[in-house]
Amino acid sequence: MAVEWNSYLSVGVERIDDQHKEIFRQVNGFIDAINQGNGTTQVLEVLTFLTNYTVTHFHDEEEIMEETDYPRTEPHRKEHEKFCQDVLALTNQIEVKGVNKVSVLQTSHTMVNWLIQHIMNTDKALADHMRSIRQ
Ligand SMILES: [Fe+2]
To answer: N or C end of the chain, less CB within 10 A?
Structure first.
């Protein structure tokens, strides 16, 4: 199953949208790697790449929040932290137990749902704030 970035996920800030599109591309790459039955080492490589990219993206957003005195920085940052913890737990699970296709795919879909919710609510609110201070 492919997870597509759709225009309804656009927050209206090109830089953030581009990073979200890349995250979706990488999540697809990860799901493909699982579905193709790639070994633990390869799967972990793809997941590490995805994790690093996502952490950089979160950092970018958090910098914007600080620079713009965003009042909802803390709850937003906490959501990022939660996602990072979940990805770390998934990495540990794969490291310890190897790739259990069903369980890894289930976790991946939970992560995708989290991403969609986060973008639709939390990131859109940040984008609204960015637009409001530009006016
Ligand atoms: Fe965010």
So the answer is: C
